[in-house]
Automatic annotation (TrEMBL):
Domain Kinesin motor, first and last residues per copy: 3-445
Binding site for ATP: G98, H99, S100, G101, S102, G103, K104, T105
UniProt name for this protein: Kinesin-like protein
Superkingdom of origin organism: Eukaryota
Keywords from the UniProt entry: ATP-binding, Microtubule, Motor protein, Nucleotide-binding
Organism: Penicillium brasilianum
Amino acid sequence: MQPFRVFARWRSLSADESGHEEIQREITQNNSTLSSISIAAPFQSNSLSNRDQSWSSQPSMTGIFEINDNNETVFNAVVASVLPRVLQGKSSNFFAYGHSGSGKTHTIIGYDYENTENLGLCLASARHLMQELARVNAENTGDQLGIGIRLYELRKNSAFDLLNDHCECFVREGPDGQVYIRGKTEMLKDGKVRVRPIVTKACWNFEDLSRELQRGLKLRATGTSTVHDQSSRTHAVIELEIMTKELLEARDAIVERQSELVPVGKYATDVYLEEQIRAVVLDEKGKYVPNPDYRVDQGRIDAAEARKADFEARVRSAEEHESSLFQSISRRHACLGGKLVFVDLAGSEYYDAKNGSRPNQTAQEKQEGRQINTDLLALKEVIRARAQKLARVPFRSSPLTMVLRQHFQASSDTDSAMILTISPSARDSAATMNTLKYGSLVGVAGDKK
């Protein structure tokens, strides 16, 4: 298993922090690959007790970015080396962790969509992949390669599809042990019932992908955190997958076949239950006994089950076609199915023992804060369990880790990374220290092979 890399990124002081004292910090190169970081808050800092003014991490940081390092510098150090593996069909995951207002969204997505030096990791990666795919497409007269984007946010126990009008979806584990994110049941014509998965938008150039991402992000939920009033209170997950139009159509066909199966399967179940209910009656003692006046119509049951089996075969056929098509195209283009997953984690919550929690938070917002902390703790434990190669990895501990299970499993042979976004302001000393402690634990565990 490849190591899980951890980076720290100091943001600059914001306009309302100018004039504030800064956290003192020092970097120590402990070996050829990992560094430790030491911080010390000004003695008069109100956010920490006198005995908790300083702290030093273990050798756990792959790299540390200073305030003058732009997004392009971060991309080159964190993601660029992984892209050749993605173009070989591999997967890799990247996380931004930190307290609200520390720069997570700026790092993962960015706000300046026109300046290539300030594109977040997601868009910078998409731009580089699109350039490479354009070169491949120019040399190829058959398959046209593009990037499928999925964008959704996780809030409590639900996922919301940001590319499908913020449609609420549900995280469920299927009988096959796989985790599925499905929307609400839709009633279609001819009795069809569809449960649509997270929508994939196929993009054939960088400009279209950037527009889709920006459109979806406008629907992302914000709220009051312990730091400020417009904090992202959800985990945003962005998936970029190299695909073709034919592959996307084949996956849509599976959903269509599944939609056709639902009412047929329900009818077969209803028929069976009806026949079984008619075959029994209540006796004088209130017990169910065989009904002497009715004989189970096994022919009716068999006919319904046969029709159900026919529609199940159609689903399997669609799945086999998708698998066969994937294998066929991947023999021509090894990059097919290559995937990058970027997770802009919700701002970590902390409790300021001196000043108390933010007074204008509602009970619901406090509950959301507790759920966010539960998710982040679960993520840390999953990373540590995988690094230690434990027999049981606690993916079921939270909806976040359930959703990420398939991505962790798919990226076991490639590098993944977490960027800790931290503030130099003395007033954020407690939050910065908590972020570095979290990252140090992840980094120490993730470096084990």
